[in-house]
Amino acid sequence: MAMSQRLLAPLASDGGTALRETLDSYLRHSGSSREICDELFIHRNTLTYRLRKIEDALGLDLSDGEVRATCLLALSIVAAHG
């Protein structure tokens, strides 16, 4: 669990949960902009901005399937442990 928390820790830099919620939605909706924006009530430009911030903060490329799987697992582990 500690590794998952360390992986996701940079997402707290926005002072809230917006980046983490965006990443979670992105992964659950397989990158579907329409579905993500509808769920989060955000504009597509906001989604693009947040995804860029997430990649920069984590130092990862979300277009990589292994990276997406790792992030999804980390989010699941952290959520399961409160």
From TrEMBL:
The keyword DNA-binding applies. The keyword DNA-binding applies. InterPro entries: CdaR-like_regulators, PucR_C-HTH_dom, PucR_C-HTH_sf. Residues 19-76 form the PucR C-terminal helix-turn-helix domain. Keywords: DNA-binding. GO terms for molecular function: DNA binding. It comes from the Bacteria. Pfam families: HTH_30 (PF13556). This is DNA-binding PucR family transcriptional regulator.
